[in-house]
Specification:
Number of strands: 13
Number of helices: 13
Radius of gyration: 20 Å
Shape: globular
Helix content: 25-40%
Strand content: 5-15%
Largest sheet: 7 strands, mixed
Length: 371
């Protein structure tokens, strides 16, 4: 049966962060949470578990790590063993753990700017030197910027721009890190949501010497719309590196929820057809959005190569220095302000929703743009 992504149920009154932050008349198109119903095998696996009335601490079955390892080989041609898999409640705790474990106080944390706000926050959490670099920085600039006390926190596919790093770009980045003796922490949470036939390349899959210095972070949360179930994982192929990162759980980071573990197994073993249909729907939404917004004066938007997030350049749209605030107050549509990503004048829009909601959001934005 073809999934019905156009028929998402209403979410007001469901304790949704996305839908409860603003007044009921505001259309929320901000946080990376899609308004699409979950795949039926996931819902069925959870419903079956809920028939048992006890919800104690959940063990991690060996099968979970095998499923993840098999998926890495099938989707990316990446040879991973089950023992390389570290279960986590989320990617954000994972990259904070890795930064704490690998970068000494005063060391540099590099990333491509603009970037996801929790990535921008990592350096301040652990007393590190905040060291953003432009997405277009070349290999020579990367090598000059890094030292052996540093790490590069890669976001691929990139949030908020939706850029998918090519194998050549990843090779240049990896070589720069290896030359400097720096670590690689790679947030690849959107890796299953690539458009136009692109294929994701995990940076650790490039070569054994890259894998030996890389912590890769993934989750089914975004692609399968189960972020609220709090499940993610790291793949760390070097045993000493894996032990080093694990010591920084520090009593704060658990392995994730039992229901999340069940949902992840169902997603990774039974839902790839659903995922293919979702990517097609999102790609059509992306094309529709870019075409419609491209007609508005002063608004620039490029088609993202991945994710369900569009990065809007509103600096010349006549909405002032904080366009997201104007769109919220006047248009009653909520976007993520670009300043949160380090880019005032921009905004991020979530197009992971039924087409009628997307059209409503576009209409509200258009009504605010001076003509």
């Amino acid at each position: 049966m073809t999934p019905d992504f156009a028929g998402a149920p209403p979410r007001l009154g469901t304790d949704s962060t996305k839908w409860s932050r603003y007044a009921p008349d505001v259309l929320p198109m901000w946080v990376a949470d899609m308004d699409v119903p979950v795949a039926s095998p996931i819902a069925e696996a959870l419903a079956e578990r809920l028939r048992h009335p006890v919800f104690g601490y959940a063990a991690v079955p060996d099968q979970v790590r095998r499923v993840i390892a098999d998926r890495m080989g099938a989707r990316y041609g990446w040879a991973v063993s089950p023992e390389h898999v570290v279960l986590l409640p989320g990617v954000v705790p994972g990259f904070n753990m890795a930064a704490r474990a690998l970068v000494p106080a005063g060391g540099g944390l590099h990333y491509h700017a603009p970037t996801y706000p929790p990535i921008r926050a990592v350096a301040a959490h652990w007393g590190l030197r905040d060291a953003p670099l432009p997405v277009e920085a070349d290999a020579a600039a990367l090598r000059r910027a890094m030292t052996r006390d540093d790490a590069f926190l890669l976001c691929n596919p990139h949030n908020p721009t939706g850029h998918v790093f090519s194998r050549a770009e990843l090779e240049a980045l990896a070589q720069a890190c290896l030359s400097a003796g720096a670590w690689i922490i790679s947030d690849e949470i959107h890796c299953d949501l690539l458009f136009d036939g692109r294929r994701h390349v995990p940076i650790a899959s490039l070569a054994p010497e890259v894998a030996a210095r890389t912590v890769t972070l993934m989750s089914p949360g975004k692609a399968f719309n189960i972020a609220g179930l709090k499940i993610a994982f790291a793949i760390i192929q070097d045993a000493a590196l894996r032990d080093r990162v694990q010591t920084c759980r520090l009593g704060m980071v658990d392995q994730g929820s039992g229901l999340g573990l069940l949902a992840m197994q169902a997603a990774f073993t039974q839902c790839d057809g659903w995922l293919d249909a979702l990517v097609s729907y999102l790609q059509a939404n992306r094309d529709h959005l870019v075409q419609r917004l491209g007609r508005l004066p002063g608004l620039r938007v490029s088609a993202p190569e991945a994710t369900f997030l569009a990065w809007l350049d509103l600096r010349e749209a006549g909405l002032g220095p904080d366009p997201a605030r104007v769109l919220l107050e006047q248009g009653r549509v909520a976007l993520n302000p670009g300043a949160d990503f380090g880019a005032p004048g921009f905004a991020r829009l979530n197009f992971g929703c039924p087409r009628d909601l997307l059209d409503e959001g576009i209409a509200r934005i258009a009504a605010c743009i001076p003509t």
